[in-house]
Amino acid sequence: MLGEKDTFQSDYYWYSKRAIPEEARSAISRMATGKPVGEIEFSGIKKKLLEVSGSVFAPVFIENRKYLYKGEFTAPSLENDYRNSRNFITEDGLAGFSLTGTGWLVSLYSNYTERGFARAVKDYIVKDAYKLVCIVSEKEKNNGLVRMYEEVYGFRKYARTINDTIVMGEHYGDEFIKKFISENGVPYHIFMIGSGAVGEAADYPRFEDYFVAEKFVEDTVSRRA
User: What per-residue confidence (pLDDT) applies to 18?
Assistant: First the structure.
């Protein structure tokens, strides 16, 4: 598990030896209904991958996020509209991700005690996703999530904000941001682009305003022809 030792294992980011409660696991499994699109394998187990509607993905993700390793670094479901996205979960709902129609990868998660889900879905992700944004903090050891995106999916850092305490407090609530800062330090965001993207920025610009940064990415990044 990241944090147990200094050695970084990129495709193990979410791995935790603590399984989620059986009651929650069962509730998630009952919600996991969709169209099978393939099968993935990691750590010697095989799982069907389902494509699901936004109305299925949202509650499945909400329940999983309660138990997700470093879940505070994953934006709540209300920050994303899954209705116009392609949403994927495993057959029991314990892992998944969403791909927006404009090329953003959002809500990638795994609550498996087995390792390697992130790498197992690489082909699905790099085919259609070429933009993402990570919540990061000054105390986050190894910048684990950013490094996972770099090493597993080939994304690179493109732009970042400086201090998102205010905007995250406004969107996630005072209680969330106070707890986040006390445990992790000042939050900011790193925007990343994939190998399937072309970005006009020559350097790694910093922005005071999150929404200005987001618009900059939207305006200067396009899918590689």
Answer: 62
